[in-house]
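PROTEIN DESIGN WORKSHEET
SECTION A - STRUCTURE
LENGTH: 218
TOKENS:
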């Protein structure tokens, strides 16, 4: 039987040793995949990526020393042909959006079946973006330009998004008005429209929405 020399070389970066080694073992059973290395944090992922030149890096987001977003950006700057696939527990984590902006080709949930993760690896190798979960299509549309930010943010206008960001950083209406050089009455009108569009009733819910949409970080 001929040996396929065109297997996809994968580096796994995750600070959870049991998860990382377990995933490496399971993915290594797929004849299309070769595990070329493992990294326990973002810094190690960057160093091993430079040394091993993997085709795909499976990148955890929350790691010590250097997180997955920074590691992704560093790897993509040095090796633009490398594909990065984010491993995450939360499909709506604001870090996911940041990592996609940093150049990741998509993300998979950690509780996905190994076969599904393997399929995602093969998909990004063929130039596809891979995403899981309920927000996936909307995020993907936004990133590829198929939808506008207005559609992604539930119909909010650019000005309303600006005001929402300021609300989320704790600024009162008076300060928002001063910052944007508009009247307090105009600010109140915008906030009323924001609440109506998002079907929310107070500032706490507005902050939660802003965090979920990665408009601000806590």
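SECTION B - SEQUENCE
RESIDUE ASSIGNMENT:
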């Amino acid at each position: 039987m001929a040996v396929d020399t065109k297997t996809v070389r994968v580096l796994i970066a995750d600070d959870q040793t049991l998860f990382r080694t377990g995933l490496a073992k399971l993915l290594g059973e797929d004849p299309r995949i070769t595990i070329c290395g493992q990294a326990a944090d973002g810094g190690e992922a960057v160093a091993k990526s430079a040394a091993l030149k993997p085709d795909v890096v499976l990148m955890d987001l929350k790691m010590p020393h250097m997180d997955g977003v920074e590691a992704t950006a560093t790897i993509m700057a040095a090796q633009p042909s490398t594909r990065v696939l984010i491993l995450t527990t939360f499909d709506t984590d604001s870090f996911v959006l940041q990592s996609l902006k940093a150049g990741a080709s998509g993300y998979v949930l950690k509780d996905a079946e190994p076969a599904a993760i393997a399929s995602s690896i093969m998909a990004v190798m063929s130039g596809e973006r891979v995403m899981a979960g309920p927000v996936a299509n909307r995020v993907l549309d936004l990133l590829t330009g198929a939808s506008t930010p207005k559609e992604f943010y539930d119909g909010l206008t650019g000005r309303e998004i600006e005001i929402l960001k300021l609300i989320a950083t704790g600024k009162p209406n008076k300060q928002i008005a001063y910052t944007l050089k508009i009247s307090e009455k105009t600010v109140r009108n915008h906030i009323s429209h924001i609440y109506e569009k998002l079907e929310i009733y107070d500032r706490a819910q507005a902050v939660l929405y802003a965090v979920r949409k990665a408009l601000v970080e806590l």
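SECTION C - NOTES
The mean pLDDT is 84.
The first helix runs from residue 17 to 28.
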